[in-house]
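User: I'll paste a sequence; please echo it back and then give the predicted structure.

Assistant: Echoing your sequence first, then the prediction.
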Amino acid sequence: MAIKLRKGFNPAAMKGFIVAIQKRPKTVQTIAEEVGVQDTTVRVWLELFRAPVPGQPRLIYIADWRKTAQTWTPMYMWGNEDDVPKPRPLTMAEHCRNYRRRKSLLIERKTDNESLGYLPR
């Protein structure tokens, strides 16, 4: 199957993309910044290289997941390995436990500040 490239294809940027993900796992945004292309272009290239081709190994895999804000972001790397599974979401009990822990730390910090003579505003 021949790969149809869009008009304005930049082979130097593609080479930079391949070199960038061979060093260590990276997110789409970090790859785009390093290579100097748009996020959309990186996503197209990732889809192209991750697509299964009969009789040939995959060229890119998900090496890790990074927590960003409220979601998990995949980190890609060059190679033919199995993808690391996406971490499971937190249960409601785990959310509540984390919330109570953060709240108690805030209260402790507040009382520590008051004992040191700092007054809340």
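The mean pLDDT is 83. The chain has two domains: 11-84, 90-121.
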